[in-house]
């Protein structure tokens, strides 16, 4: 039984109450709305995060909420999204697993960061492994949500200091997931505190530039021991998103960073001969030929779309389209359903990846429509709804089916990304 606060936190109208199986629903917006209702069962108003999801995963859950709100004008969705943003910005910083670590020595002790217990590593199968401090995932004591900002968004507007340092944890990909999450909140609400927070996070991460590879790019973490694709793609995407949203006088700053990043990235060789992107660079600054995870094929798509909007260049969408088609070919089964190497059972990090690809593919489809992209988006959304959903409309990891229990906030928000993508494809 879920704590009552989880239900009280988000009071939805009867229009969004789940229907058992809802097997006959084909409208993509309705499907996404029902999945939003299910997602919120995991939302913990007291922490501002989704129970069972990691720190960066919660940023992605918030992003999928904002992506739905951008295209679904229903008052219920708009109000719900605004309440989530206003609550999370106040409550979540207390759950930052490693605040302020950038200001300490980069020495490590047995690969665990001194004084924290938070670490990210890569296993023998190329899977990312996140280790949280002891008791980090505990929900804590019961919280009366009537005392929290989610109950009164206007209270949050006054209370939120939105200090960028509160969102930094020493892993720059984590930081930038939150920056993109707050950009999404700004897109929905037009509240500049969210945009300013994203900008502040990004500026803090610029200190990670450059790596020792070609005098460019950012490190994965404050430890400065790995230059990987995801951190750099997120750096590109965040800079480009900000370029399209800040005041005209500040635009050039973000365009410059985005162009520096994409020029460096394309020179590294992380894009392999098949056209997909491997995980990162080895100690000799060469492609390490590690797994081409789906999210590494997706983040760059939205980054290039935004950069092309900010500073048009005929090559950006061409590069994005080639990567997208290569990824669809490499990662899809005979029914066009996506799979990562670890599937169907992946850890807490990789369980998020496929939805991020769907998100990027949606962004590309909107500006450079292609039947290949549309076919992939629709095939995955339909398979999720028909084969990967339980009686409460909760979504699991195996998009091709069968449903694998239990689902969690990470598997669900990832699959919801694909449902949202199908609305505009």
Automatic annotation (TrEMBL):
A GO biological-process term: carbohydrate metabolic process
Transmembrane annotation, as ranges: none
Entry superkingdom: Eukaryota
Keyword Signal among UniProt keywords: yes
Signal sequence range: 1-22
InterPro entries in the record: 6-hairpin_glycosidase_sf, Glyco_hydro_76, MUG_Protein
Keyword Protease (UniProt): no
GO MF annotations in UniProt: hydrolase activity, acting on glycosyl bonds
Alphabetized Pfam families for the sequence: Glyco_hydro_76
Keyword terms of this UniProt record: Glycosidase, Hydrolase, Signal
SUPFAM superfamilies for this protein: Six-hairpin glycosidases (SSF48208)
Name of the protein in question: Six-hairpin glycosidase
């Amino acid at each position: 039984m879920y704590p009552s606060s989880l239900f009280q936190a988000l009071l939805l109208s009867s229009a969004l109450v789940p229907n058992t199986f809802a097997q006959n629903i084909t409208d993509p917006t309705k499907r996404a709305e029902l999945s939003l209702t299910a997602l919120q069962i995991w939302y913990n108003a007291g922490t501002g995060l989704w129970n069972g999801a990691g720190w960066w995963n919660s940023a992605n859950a918030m992003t999928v909420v904002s992506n739905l709100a951008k295209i679904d004008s229903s008052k219920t969705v708009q109000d719900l999204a605004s309440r989530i943003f206003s609550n999370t910005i106040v409550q979540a910083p207390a759950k930052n697993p490693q605040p302020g670590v950038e200001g300490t020595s980069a020495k490590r002790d047995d690969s665990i960061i001194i004084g924290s217990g938070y670490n990210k590593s890569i296993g023998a199968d190329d899977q990312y492994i996140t280790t949280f401090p002891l008791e980090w995932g505990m929900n804590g004591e019961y919280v009366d949500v009537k005392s929290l900002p989610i109950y009164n968004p206007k209270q949050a507007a006054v209370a939120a200091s939105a200090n960028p340092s509160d969102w930094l944890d020493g892993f720059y990909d984590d930081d930038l997931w939150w920056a993109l999450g707050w950009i999404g909140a700004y897109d929905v609400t037009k509240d500049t505190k969210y945009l300013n927070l994203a900008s502040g996070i990004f500026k803090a991460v610029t200190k990670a530039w450059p790596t020792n590879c070609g005098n460019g790019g950012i490190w994965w973490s404050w430890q400065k021991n790995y230059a990987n694709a995801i951190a750099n793609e997120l750096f590109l995407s965040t800079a480009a998103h900000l370029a399209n949203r800040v005041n005209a006088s500040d635009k050039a700053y973000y365009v410059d960073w985005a162009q520096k990043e994409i020029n460096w990235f394309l020179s590294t060789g992380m894009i392999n001969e098949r056209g997909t992107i491997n995980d990162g660079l080895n100690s000799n600054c060469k492609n390490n030929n590690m797994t081409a995870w789906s999210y590494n094929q997706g983040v760059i798509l939205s980054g290039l779309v935004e950069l092309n909007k900010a500073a048009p260049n005929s090559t950006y969408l061409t590069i994005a389209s080639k990567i997208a088609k290569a990824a669809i070919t490499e990662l899809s089964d005979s029914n066009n359903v996506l799979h990562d190497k670890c599937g169907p059972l992946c850890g807490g990090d990789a369980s998020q990846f496929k939805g991020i690809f769907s998100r990027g593919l949606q962004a590309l489809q909107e500006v450079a429509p292609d039947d290949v992209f549309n076919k992939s988006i629709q095939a995955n959304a339909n398979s999720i709804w028909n084969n990967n959903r339980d009686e409460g409309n909760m979504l699991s990891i195996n998009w091709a089916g069968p449903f694998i229990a239990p689902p969690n906030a990470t598997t669900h928000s990832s699959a919801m990304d694909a449902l949202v993508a199908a609305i505009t494809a």
